[in-house]
Design a protein that fits this description.
Blueprint (H helix, E strand, L loop, with lengths): L9 E5 L3 E5 L10 H8 L4 E5 L16 H12 L4 E6 L1 H12 L4 E7 L17 H13 L1 H13 L5 H12 L7 H13 L3 H4 L6 E6 L9 H5 L7 E5 L6 H4 L1 H12 L3
Parallel strand pairs: 2-3, 2-4, 4-5, 5-6, 6-7
Antiparallel strand pairs: 1-3
Helix pairs in contact: 1-11, 4-5, 4-7, 5-6
């Protein structure tokens, strides 16, 4: 596959079957690299993909087909046969990759993610559209402040949230901020992507790994979605919010490894 832009940045380490991670909006590989190295590198060949305009990845000058351009860029650098883990926006993208290229995906794990991020008349287990609209407007005024607000929101509701928020923000302020154009594209994808009906026909093993107190994704969504995808597994990390791997690293890793080792 030849794309009209440089390939996305990846970090690779470990040995064993392929295991690929795609991070969420406003993040980069360094957000969860240490956690992944600690719990997964001894058993898997790990690939961390940085989304367009994040970390060391180039941005993408998208046309009208934004979603497909991002998917193609991810497929370009993703190992041929891999277990796939996506967090938040990365989970939406991982779902779509598995839908489009099921022969390349051994399993899909969606951490703090759903098939549709914003509410609709027939989908209540999501955030209100106004939240992402507010983020979109705020980005143009002060991207750094908008990201800080989002980082706080992701950890709210977690055990020890106050201390975790301080720690996470101090870490992120030492890192390169994503490009505003790519943040805008990511918000657009969160607003537009809806994988619900396509997932009905997905046959690869799926794990929904959710935080009990996630302020962005109500855990009740699994009750409704289990009728759409009854073969999927669901694991709830008690006391966690939207970043279970950060607040509850051992519990989150245990749930993921338990699923992966069955495949």
């Amino acid at each position: 596959m030849t794309l009209p832009h440089p390939p996305l940045h990846i970090d690779q380490f470990g040995s064993g079957p392929n295991l690929t991670f795609i991070h969420g909006w406003g993040a980069q590989n360094s957000v969860w690299k240490a956690w992944i190295q600690q719990f997964f590198s001894h058993q898997f060949t790990v690939t961390l993909i940085e989304l367009p305009g994040c970390g060391k990845s180039p941005s993408i000058d998208a046309d009208s087909n934004l979603q497909q351009q991002w998917i193609d860029a991810l497929l370009q650098v993703m190992p041929e046969h891999t277990h796939l883990v996506g967090w938040s926006l990365g989970g939406l993208l991982a779902q779509q990759i598995a839908i489009q290229a099921p022969n390349r995906v051994l399993s899909v794990t969606c951490i703090a993610s759903t098939p549709r991020f914003i509410q609709a008349k027939d989908w209540h287990w999501a955030v209100q559209p106004s939240l992402l609209n507010d983020f979109m407007k705020a980005l143009g005024k002060d991207a750094a402040a908008t990201l800080t607000h989002f980082w706080k929101l992701q950890i709210q509701g977690s055990d020890g949230a106050r201390q975790l928020i301080k720690l996470f923000i101090s870490q992120m302020k030492q890192r390169k901020l994503p490009k505003v154009s790519s943040l805008t594209q990511g918000l657009q994808l969160l607003q537009e992507m809806d994988n619900r009906h396509q997932l009905e026909h997905l046959n690869v093993p799926v794990l929904w790994l959710l935080g009990e107190n996630d302020p962005l994704i109500p855990k009740e969504f699994v009750e409704e979605f289990s009728t759409i995808q009854p073969q999927a597994e669901i694991s709830l990390v008690q006391g966690a919010a939207h970043m279970p791997f950060f607040s509850h690293p051992e519990e989150t890793a245990h749930a993921l490894l338990q699923f992966l080792n069955k495949q």
